[in-house]
Amino acid sequence: MTTPTTPTDMITALVRLREALQTAHLPLDLPGVEERRKEQREMIDQIEDYVLPRLIPTDAPLLTVVGGSTGAGKSTLVNSLVGTRVTEPGVLRPTTRSPVLVHNPADADWFDKERILPDLARTSRASGDPGALQLVPSESVPQGLAILDAPDIDSVEERNRVLAAQLLAAADLWLFVTSAARYADQVPWDFLKAAAERSTAVAIVLDRTPQEAIAEVSGHLARMLTTRGLRDSPLFTVAEGKVDEDGLLSASAVADIRGWLHSLAADSSARAAVVKQTLEGAIRTISHHSHDVADASAAQADMVARLRQDVVTAYDEALREIDRASADGTLLRGEVLAR
Ligand SMILES: Nc1nc2c(ncn2[C@@H]2O[C@H](COP(=O)(O)OP(=O)(O)OP(=O)(O)O)[C@@H](O)[C@H]2O)c(=O)[nH]1
Ligand SMILES: [Mg+2]
């Protein structure tokens, strides 16, 4: 493929890459093929859900996806940022199964099915349907910003995990929520590592941390972020506080995060920089990983040729054996003697 020089060239190249990925079949269970199939599926989704819609030059709102472990407090955080209960928090793990996207009413058109995440049905009501995306217009979210409450990345529910990964791959910005109890878990770090490799824009929220432990835990988490390539990601802390009868934290507990998101929403060049960082990282990663799928596809073709050759060789050998046995009479002699 030649290097695309204009946005139209880039879109054409990516549409062709998507077609090539869709037609690359990996039916044989060769070593490592599961990982390649997963990569292939994720790349097709990300091209359709995010990269192609984002490449059409627009001033679309910044899609911020709130992701992280089950029970980290994602839904509570989204409600507290918006200031009303727009998504259900809960004590059962996992709680959120269907994504909820909160946006300013003026930005409603950006989130119809034709634009992003085309395979999720739009709904205006809460549901537990992982195939539906609930849209909530709210004046509390500034124009230019949308916040999506995603299912968890690590519960026993596989559908949650797959959907959460798909939603994060469609985000301009991750608001990645972890807690004092969970911040060193493996699964979140696998996601953060992937974000660092793709240079996805990420802000981290250390949630549900006892006041007296904030300094120590956030210091440790900051060091972990630095050594894992996320030195530039903003780190916010939210102390474990009381929630009110609607399940909301106090406005002051989330004021820093809210202020930061609102200032991004208000600054179109800062927003464009976030989109550019995430979009370019996604395209770069897709173009690297598509080589893995191409190699896997070539390995499958080689294996098919080898298996076919094995069959031909075995057949030829058997035929030769029959020829030999019938020519010197051994094939029939035993039979005749027996009779
Ligand atoms: N006291 C207190 N409770 C919290 C806080 N954050 C979350 N909770 C409670 O913890 C439970 C889980 O919170 P959720 O917001 O549902 O967590 P989640 O990350 O959305 O969980 P999943 O949807 O399962 O991924 C709920 O009962 C919340 O009320 C907090 O900062 N303080
Ligand atoms: Mg939730």
Shape: elongated
**N-to-C order of helices and strands:** HHEHEEEEHEHEHEHHH
Mean pLDDT: 92
Strand portion: 5-15%
Most strands sheet: 8 strands, mixed
Which percent range fits the helix content? 40-55%
How far apart are the termini? 71 Å
Count of alpha/pi helices: 9
Q: Spans with pLDDT under 50 lasting ≥5 residues?
A: none
Plain-language structure description:
This protein has nine helices and eight strands. The protein is α/β, with parallel strands linked by helices and 339 residues long. β6, α5 (186-198) and β7 (201-209) form a beta-alpha-beta unit. The radius of gyration is 27 Å and the shape is elongated. Bound molecules: guanosine-5'-triphosphate and magnesium ion. The site of guanosine-5'-triphosphate (GTP) has 23 residues, from α3.
Summarize it.
It contains 9 helices and 8 strands.
List keywords for this structure.
about 350 residues; alpha/beta; 9 helices; binds guanosine-5'-triphosphate; binds magnesium ion
Structural topology:
Blueprint: H1 7-23, H2 33-55, E1 62-68, H3 74-82, E2 100-103, E3 121-123, E4 132-137, E5 145-149, H4 158-169, E6 173-179, H5 186-198, E7 201-209, H6 214-227, E8 235-239, H7 255-266, H8 268-327, H9 330-338
Helix pairs in contact: 1-2, 2-8
Bound molecules: guanosine-5'-triphosphate and magnesium ion.
